[in-house]
UniProtKB/TrEMBL annotation:
<dbReference type="InterPro" id="IPR012825">
    <property type="entry name" value="BluB"/>
</dbReference>
<keyword id="KW-0520">NAD</keyword>
<keyword id="KW-0285">Flavoprotein</keyword>
<comment type="subunit">
    <text>Homooctamer.</text>
</comment>
<comment type="similarity">
    <text>Belongs to the BluB family.</text>
</comment>
<dbReference type="GO" id="GO:0009236">
    <property type="term" value="P:cobalamin biosynthetic process"/>
</dbReference>
<keyword id="KW-0560">Oxidoreductase</keyword>
<dbReference type="InterPro" id="IPR050627">
    <property type="entry name" value="Nitroreductase/BluB"/>
</dbReference>
<dbReference type="Pfam" id="PF00881">
    <property type="entry name" value="Nitroreductase"/>
</dbReference>
<protein>
    <recommendedName>
        <fullName>5,6-dimethylbenzimidazole synthase</fullName>
        <ecNumber>1.13.11.79</ecNumber>
    </recommendedName>
</protein>
<dbReference type="GO" id="GO:0102919">
    <property type="term" value="F:5,6-dimethylbenzimidazole synthase activity"/>
</dbReference>
<dbReference type="InterPro" id="IPR000415">
    <property type="entry name" value="Nitroreductase-like"/>
</dbReference>
<dbReference type="GO" id="GO:0000166">
    <property type="term" value="F:nucleotide binding"/>
</dbReference>
<dbReference type="InterPro" id="IPR029479">
    <property type="entry name" value="Nitroreductase"/>
</dbReference>
<keyword id="KW-0547">Nucleotide-binding</keyword>
<feature type="domain" description="Nitroreductase">
    <location>
        <begin position="23"/>
        <end position="190"/>
    </location>
</feature>
<keyword id="KW-0521">NADP</keyword>
Amino acid sequence: MTKINQNIHRFGEEERQGVYRAIYERRDIRSYFTPTPIEDDVLARLLDAAHHAPSVGMMQPWRFILIRDAGVRQSVYELFQQANEAASSIYEDKQKALYMSLKLAGILETPVNLCVTCDITSQRGRGLGRQTMPETAIYSTVCAIQNLWLAARAEGIGVGWVSIFEPERLGSLLGIPAEMVLVGYLCIGYASQFDAQSELQTRGWEVPSQLPNLIHFDRYGNTDEKRAAELLSALTKTNGFQAPSF
Ligand SMILES: Cc1cc2c(cc1C)N(C[C@H](O)[C@H](O)[C@H](O)COP(=O)(O)O)c1[nH]c(=O)[nH]c(=O)c1N2
């Protein structure tokens, strides 16, 4: 019997660690943007990384609106402020004060904003994989965003995803046709710092959940913290990179 070398397609050690490093050290950046312009070749790499995402039936439904114009960004910022004011109204007392003190967008500070939309009307892929789950078009677009986010981290560029908008108002401001889905609004710029943990954790807004509690064995509901912890105990050994504790 021929013995298959299971490591034959594995990346070299440094490359492999680079992939995990991008994953673990990616952050949602809000406070650390610098105004340094992003060179066209770097921006091209980020967009092309997004364009290499998996997509249902090879639909590639992502459409990008690249926004650099200061006037457009100012109008977007005003929509954010209005939505953020409304969002804060569900919180009270200390929680409201904390919410109001959070920095939740870098629309004006970043040299590039990118609105990522999904053309759910596209016939590309001829419906493969989408007949019972049409929402997979949107999932594909999110995969593109994640690709861009990780590539940006490798380039030293921060990305902040802003979803505090009334989508219809943002859509009409940016001329997005009604049949398209607005998926994400990204603020993109070189970052002066990438923290070891999420800013929301540092600011006391939320704590990360523990992976062992999120693994179900064979059927939903069948969690087994001990078994999951055992499985994950090899984590640092196998990826060769010191993962954060969640
Ligand atoms: C779909 C979606 C939408 C948003 C976000 C993310 C995603 C995936 N995040 C960023 C979010 O707060 C952040 O990812 C978590 O706090 C975890 O932090 P790190 O990304 O690990 O730094 C985010 N952050 C923010 O400041 N304002 C926002 O409107 C949003 N919206």
